[in-house]
């Protein structure tokens, strides 16, 4: 009897390990809230649409906010926290540029009214990004749900992991690959720059000193971005349809009219030229690939199971 009991110990340990693994690696699911908060998605959509109707630029801001969340220790809502002095909002890539926090707070408030303590801020942000895309004629996609919220911000990781507007194509490719995203994913996600605005300091060097830029385009952009002042002056990333998520961004790159250096390097004789060309010719291909890449980005290192928490308010831990 003793020997049989002893022999069963490894099997028991194996079962416990498998159970722990399954718990700690719980899968995201589009039906996660179907029973616990069936009206969550419609409530979020109503709130986000109201915010974007007040300021259309907010659509780009929400997509960017989700991106900046997912690239820093995964899609866990850490970028939303501001209850400590040391937070992601204050790092150079987000300070005075990342926007939309109040729209996520508003959506959370509405969801809490119907399902208190159920829906995470990380999931609300993921859904908001999808709803923002739809609001500006972009694609929709099925959002996977079940993320939990981090209990700490990661400003140091934000500084090290977020892409720079001055980076070369190999640097950008490597940065996205470290997050499990392919070159095609990277180019498709960059297409979100068909909407939104950029501050003068992010493109000043390109329009005054760049060589891989259309001269007329550079001249036009200089009118709104002085050579030595006006760092925070805004300019649309794409001039043709600045409030519509479409493929004009890629058509611009073919003409050397990318506003940011990190935009134009996507079409500069490198490995992504063919993807840019394809998207410039086929808007439906771009929109489908953008949706797929957003789903893939939303899968980056989510907290699930018992990890993290469900915050009661999105900008502070419980």
Automatic annotation (TrEMBL):
InterPro entries listed in its UniProt record: Haem_peroxidase (IPR002016), Haem_peroxidase_sf (IPR010255), Peroxidase_pln (IPR000823), Peroxidases_AS (IPR019794), Peroxidases_heam-ligand_BS (IPR019793), Secretory_peroxidase (IPR033905)
Cofactor notes: Binds 2 calcium ions per subunit.
Entry similarity comment: Belongs to the peroxidase family. Ascorbate peroxidase subfamily. Belongs to the peroxidase family. Classical plant (class III) peroxidase subfamily.
Keywords, alphabetical: Calcium, Disulfide bond, Heme, Hydrogen peroxide, Iron, Metal-binding, Oxidoreductase, Peroxidase, Secreted, Signal
A GO term for molecular function: metal ion binding
Species the sequence originates in: Ziziphus jujuba (Chinese jujube)
Iron is among the record's keywords: yes
Gene of this entry: LOC107435794
Protein name (record): Peroxidase
């Amino acid at each position: 009897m003793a020997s049989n009991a002893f022999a069963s110990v490894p099997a028991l340990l194996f079962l416990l390990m498998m159970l722990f693994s399954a718990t700690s690696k719980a899968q995201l699911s589009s039906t996660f809230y179907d029973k616990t908060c069936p009206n969550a998605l419609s409530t979020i959509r109503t709130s986000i649409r109201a915010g974007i109707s007040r300021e259309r630029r907010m659509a780009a801001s929400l997509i960017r906010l989700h991106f900046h969340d997912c690239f820093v220790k995964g899609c866990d809502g850490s970028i939303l926290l501001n209850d400590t002095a040391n937070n992601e909002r204050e790092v150079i890539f987000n300070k005075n540029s990342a926007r939309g926090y109040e729209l996520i707070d508003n959506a959370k408030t509405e969801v809490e009214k119907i399902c208190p303590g159920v829906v995470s801020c990380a999931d609300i942000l993921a859904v908001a990004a999808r709803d923002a895309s739809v609001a500006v004629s972009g694609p929709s996609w099925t959002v996977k749900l079940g993320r939990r919220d981090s209990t700490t911000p990661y400003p140091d990781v934000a500084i090290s992991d977020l892409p720079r507007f001055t980076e070369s194509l190999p640097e950008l490719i490597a940065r996205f690959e470290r997050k499990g995203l392919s070159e095609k994913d990277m180019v498709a996600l960059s297409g979100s720059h068909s909407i939104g605005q950029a501050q003068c300091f992010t493109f000043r060097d390109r329009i005054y000193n760049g060589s891989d830029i259309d001269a007329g385009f550079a001249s036009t952009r200089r009118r709104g971005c002085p050579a030595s002042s006006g760092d925070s002056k805004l300019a649309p990333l794409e001039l043709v349809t600045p409030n519509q998520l479409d493929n004009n961004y890629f058509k611009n790159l073919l003409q050397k009219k990318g506003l940011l250096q990190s935009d134009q390097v996507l079409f500069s004789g490198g490995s992504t030229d063919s993807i840019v060309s394809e998207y410039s010719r086929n808007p439906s291909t771009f929109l489908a690939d953008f949706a797929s890449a957003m789903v893939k980005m939303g899968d980056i290192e989510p907290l699930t199971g018992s990890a993290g928490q469900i915050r009661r308010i999105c900008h502070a831990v419980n």
